[in-house]
Structures are given as C-alpha cells and as structure tokens.
Amino acid sequence: MLSPRFSLLRSAASLTTRSFCAGGVSKQGRAPDMIEVRNRLREIVGASTNWSDHQQAMAERLSLASMLAKSQNDLPAKRMKDSCLEVHLPLGSEPQLREKYLTFHNTVRFGRILEDLDSLAVLISYSHTYNEALKRSPLSIVTALVDKIDMRQHIIYPDCDIKFTGHVTWVGKTSIEAKMHMSQYHDGDYAPVLDATFVMVARDPENKRAAFVNPLKAEGPEEEKLFQQGEANKLRRVELSTASLLKVAPTDEERKIVHSLFLNTLDTKTVSFRSRLLPPNSVWMEDAKLKGLEICHPQERNIFNRIFGGFLMRKAYELGWANACSFGGCRPNLVAVDDILFQKPVEIGSLLLLSSQVCYTQGKHIQVRVHSEVFDPLTRQHNTTNVFHFTFVSDRDVPNIIPQTYGESMLYLDGKRHFNQTVEH
C-alpha cells in the first residue's frame, strides 16, 4: 500500500490524511472519519441531505453533461498516489460512535464495515477523476462489483480504533478498480483485518450511459505489478462469466459429482428415480433457506437517490450470516466475500426481496448465496438486482448440504466453485 495521500480537491473543502475542511470548519491533525467521507461525496456530486430537495439537485446535475470528456485521450493521466486515502473509524477514542457498530455479542457489525468500504471506494474513485477546474464532478460513479474481500483475522474489537487505506490500482476506459485495506489498533500497533477489491463504473450525470475516466500511470515496479494484477482480475472475471453454469453445461468432473450425490440419496429398497432418502448428517438444500423483505425508504438512499449499495450489502450479509448460524448451530465467522455483482439499481420505494441459500458445505465451512430482487406489487414483476456470495467458517463440522433437483445441483456446483476460489486464493 502506498503512503496515504490525497490531493486538495478545492480550497473550500479539502480532504487529506491530515486535514478536512467543510463549510469553513477545519479539523486538523488527524485523518477524516466516515461521516466526513460521506459529506465530501455529497459536495462532489452536489447532492442534498434533504430528501425534499433531491429532484432539484438531480435536475441541476443535468447541466454537467457538457463537461464530460469525449474520449479518454482528452483526460490527463493520474498516478496511484493521487487517489490514496486514509480514513479512521474511531471506535476506541469515540465511544458514542461505538453503538452503531456494536452487536449484542459485543462484536463489530460487519455489515456496517461493508457500508464504509463502499463509501470509501466511491471517494477513492472520485479522487482519481478529480478535475480542479470543475466545482462539481459530472461523473456518476457507482459500485459495479465487489470482486473480493478476504479476512485476515476473524476478530474485530468493538472498542479499538480502525483505519482504512486505499487507492486506485487499475483503470479501464470507463471502470476503476480500487483496493482497500482495513487494520485495527490493538496491543500498541495496527494489525491487518481485511483486504478488499471493488470495481466501480463511471456514468453520465443521469447515471444512464458510460463515461470516460482518467487513464492510470503506474510509477515503478510495485505499481506496475498492481496494475497487471488488475488486468489479470479483469480477464479472470471474463473467464468466469463465460464459464457460468447459467450459460454452459457443467464440466465432466462436476457432472460426476452431481451423479454421485444422486446415487447417495437413492432408497436401496425401492431403487426408484423418485424415491430419495436423506443420508446421515445431511440437510436437503430446500430446508436451508432464509428469506427477508426490505421496504426501501429515502433514509437509505445514496448521493444519486437510489438505494445505497452498502445498505444492500449489509442486509444481504446479515441475512446470510443468520442462515449460516441457523444451519451450523453456532455463530459463524466470515472468511470471504466474493463476486458481488450489482446488476440493476434499486429505486426508492421498492420492495426488496432477499433470499439466502446454503449451497455448499465442506468440513466447518458454509457457502451461502444471497439473491436480491425488486418486486413490483402492481405489475407482479420480479427483477434481479444483486447476487451475493459469502464464505463462513463454524467452530464445528456442519451437516452436508444435499440438492434434490437439477436447479439445486447447479447452485451446489456454483457454490463449490466460489468456495474453491476462496480456498485457492
């Protein structure tokens, strides 16, 4: 990770690792916190904190379309250090903040951490595309994909300060990869907690069409290695999409796994295709579901007046965790978050249906898939908005999950693929 630094965005409101000024109030001598990060995002976009003003604010953004670059060649190249940020979460030094992040079991709510990572990734991306000559950014930068979140340790202390650092590591024509690291102060030093990779996309002021972003200039072998890793990540995502079980048949090895699962559930007395018996220490996949519903209120909106992606991640994580907890019979720890795809924005007022499914187990590990969709009660239409993948570990061996139908078998194989990716990473 590069040394934390962030260029002045403008004289009236600047954010660095040493100072933050907003509305003439300066906080010197420390890195900004998450409240300041979100306030800064509102300033960059021109969003109002009042829901009643949102239509006017969005209408004013339409005039910024003329400021968009016609091609990426029209934009100056930026360095990795230009987007480097350090942000603090003072859980230890500011006890009044702690309750928002606290669980009943006196641990940190990881869903809140997901919200903070999402906000930080957006600000990192805006810092990369910042144009000093413009008062507001014409770009709408949103989360396209959470490529990976790897936990370095399971324990997050509720009364110790947390530090986030991050910067842009790869750029396409309209997309940005941001890597972030979270560490926590404990026993006199900051220890690593997690590493996260987010992919962001830039769009026009109305968030309807893709928009160009500044190219990235790597300086030195360390930065060149990070950029090449970003290229490799892009190729890996393309390969995974091409090999998706929603597009192509399972491999020969995977077909053998499905057939073996089928044979292990046959009733030896009847030997019938329809007669199935659950093996010992196993659970039918149909019985390992947990569902939830969210009414999307204005309070959970982002700076573009859609539902905040971090809120969606928090709700999906909490439902997935609850399902893993119920399935394993104890409180599980998160190992990794993998391949969260944001397919469609969620509008204010939507009915959001969340469905979690334990889709693969191995030893103490539980792979959970959470599917979210928007339901329109007037048209009765369902539209998928997100798919989430979480890997949990229990303190004991968990039951085997057994599919019955072909569709469940594909969920099983998809969960196995995600689990293998996590283990091999």
N-to-C series of helices and strands? EEHHEEHHEEEEEHHEEHEEEEEH
Summing up helix and strand content along with how strands pair, one would put the structural category as alpha+beta
Q: Low-confidence parts lasting 5 or more residues at pLDDT below 50?
A: 1-28
Query: What is the spatial order of strands in the main beta sheet?
Result: 4-6-7-8-5-12-15-14-13-11
Cα-based radius of gyration, to the nearest Å? 23 Å
Q: Looking at the structure, what is the overall shape?
A: globular
The helicity comes to 25-40%
Helical element count? 8
Q: Count the strands?
A: 16
What is the average per-residue confidence, as pLDDT, rounded to a whole number? 88
Walk me through this protein's architecture:
The chain is an alpha+beta fold. Helices cover 29% and strands 30% of the residues. It is built from eight helices and 16 strands.
